[in-house]
Write a structure and sequence with these properties.
Structural class: alpha+beta
Oligomer: single chain
Helix content: 10-25%
Number of helices: 2
Number of domains: 1
Strand content: over 45%
Length: 195
C-alpha cells in the first residue's frame, strides 16, 4: 500500500498559449489539476508576480533588496485569501480545469538579468499556483514568463510623424520638378526589362 502526503495527491499543470508578453497584454491560461486521491482543499489560487531582486557586493559586504512591481492573486475555486476560512471542499479523483486571465499594467517594466563584478540584479515574472490544503502543506508550482520591452508610445508617434514629413518632402520635390522629372524618376526605379 502506498501512502501519499496530502500535497502529493495532486499534479498541477499550466496551459498557456505563449510564455512571452508585453505590458498591457492579458495572460490567459488554464490551470489543470490531476487529483490522484481524494483531496481536501480550501482554495485553488494563481498569482502573477513581478519581483525584482538586487544583490550588490562591495568588498566583504553584500547588500540585498527586493521590490515587487506587480502582484495579482486570483482565487479560481474555493475561499478567497481574505476570507480566512480554513476548510472547504473535497476533490474526488479526476481532472479539474480552472481558466484564468490577468492583465499586465501598461507601466510594468520588462524582465532583465544582469551580473557585474559579483553584483547581480534581475526582474522575474512568475505565475505561482497554490492548492490550499487544510491542516497540511499546500501544493505549489511555479512557472516563469517573459515580459518584453516595448517602445514608448511617444517614440512611436515621433517616428510616424518623421516618416510622414519625409514622404511629403519627397512628393513636394517630385511635383516641383514637373511631370517629366516624375516619369524619369519612375523609370530609374523600375527594374530593367529583359529584352
Amino acid at each position: 500500500m502506498v501512502f501519499l502526503l496530502t500535497r502529493d495527491r495532486v499534479q498541477i499543470t499550466l496551459k498557456l498559449p505563449k510564455f512571452s508578453y508585453i505590458p498591457g497584454e492579458t495572460v490567459s491560461g488554464t490551470l489543470v489539476l490531476e487529483v490522484l486521491a481524494k483531496l481536501p482543499i480550501t482554495a485553488v489560487r494563481i498569482q502573477l508576480e513581478a519581483k525584482e531582486k538586487v544583490s550588490v557586493k562591495e568588498g566583504r559586504h553584500q547588500y540585498k533588496d527586493e521590490f515587487v512591481h506587480f502582484q495579482k492573486l486570483i482565487t479560481c475555486f474555493g475561499h478567497s485569501k481574505v476570507s480566512g476560512r480554513k476548510s472547504g471542499a473535497e476533490l474526488d479523483v479526476g481532472t479539474y480545469t480552472y481558466p484564468f486571465s490577468i492583465t499586465l499594467p501598461t507601466s510594468v517594466p520588462p524582465c532583465y538579468h544582469c551580473t557585474v563584478n559579483g553584483s547581480r540584479g534581475d526582474l522575474v515574472y512568475a505565475l505561482v499556483s497554490t492548492i490550499v490544503i487544510p491542516s497540511s502543506l499546500d501544493a505549489q508550482r511555479k512557472w516563469c514568463i517573459v515580459v518584453r520591452a516595448t517602445a514608448p508610445e511617444q517614440q512611436v508617434l515621433d517616428r510616424l510623424q518623421t516618416a510622414a514629413r519625409l514622404t511629403n518632402k519627397y512628393l513636394t520635390v517630385v511635383k516641383a520638378a514637373g511631370p517629366t522629372a516624375a516619369a524619369s524618376a519612375a523609370r530609374t526605379r523600375a527594374p530593367p526589362s529583359s529584352r
